Amino acid sequence: xxxDIVTTAGTNCIxxxxxxxxxxxxxxxxxxxxxxxxQHFSTEIVSADSRQFFKEMNIGTAVPDEGELNAATHHFIQxxxxxxxxxxxxxxxxxxxTIKDIHSKHDxxxxxxxxxxxxxxxxxxxxxxxEVDSSIREELNRINEKDGLKPLQKQLKILDPTAYNTIxxxxxxxxxxxxxxxxxxxxxxxxxxxxxxxxxDFETMSIGLIADRPVIYxxxxxxxxxxxxxxxxxxxxxxxxxxxxxxxxxxxxxxxFKYLEGEWTLDFAISELKKNTRRFAxxxxxxxxxxxxxxxxxxxxxxxxxxxxxxxxxxxxx
Length: 318
Prior knowledge:
Layout: E1 6-9, E2 12-15, E3 18-23, H1 30-40, E4 45-47, H2 66-71, E5 74-75, H3 88-103, E6 108-112, H4 116-123, H5 134-147, H6 150-159, H7 161-164, H8 172-185, E7 203-210, H9 213-229, H10 232-237, H11 254-260, H12 266-288, E8 295-298, H13 303-315
Parallel strand pairs: 3-6, 3-7, 4-5, 4-6, 7-8
Antiparallel strand pairs: 1-2
């Protein structure tokens, strides 16, 4: 849908392009809304869900099904292998190029995903961090290998409570990154998250979906049950040889690995998977609520009402 959106500055008419960023906790309905918006604006979708990048991970990451993928053009869905390194910086560069291409054909592009850092990389750019001694990370990795993440999580909670409550502390890479900055600079990791935003060639409109916490948790529990019924255990079995890779150090896979290794019963592994996903959703909300530019809607809001809000904002950008 070409809206022919222009803003006037003096005698010059400038075409304005928009990125509609759909955020919210896991299992809230972001995918369904993104498809409806993409269809309404006859445009394409950029996924900012870092867990859905990998082609070997399907059930455990709730990748859109074939019908959903066919309903609108998607980018960054299962385009990499877990064996490939793909950083948030790589995604920023690739996503900006893809959005530029979409905007060459459409005035509006859609971005959807619950990975807050990846969303921020596209909309505002990444923060710059000082270089620190590589031996710090090596030591943190040794602690993780020997004792697991808990001692590292406790250390981050002491050194930087803000980061502890906002980053994915169950993700070894994110956790060690925050800690190495704290230790290497003697300053909180969160104190470096203040760089000026990068200038983009588009206006970003952030739309958030929300529900009461018991509703979110119930939807998460139901999603996990569906994943298990759809073959999650068999999927994880095919990935055992890659379990040491960072992409698989994530909720939905690490719990099932423990079951397959005989450390946990299946019932306990599923219970932990649900609990860790609920914790993940809580951290997502903490991250996204820092942005006061987001317009939040109840997850049951009629799609037409959200579309009306978007169109009103496009016509009258602030």
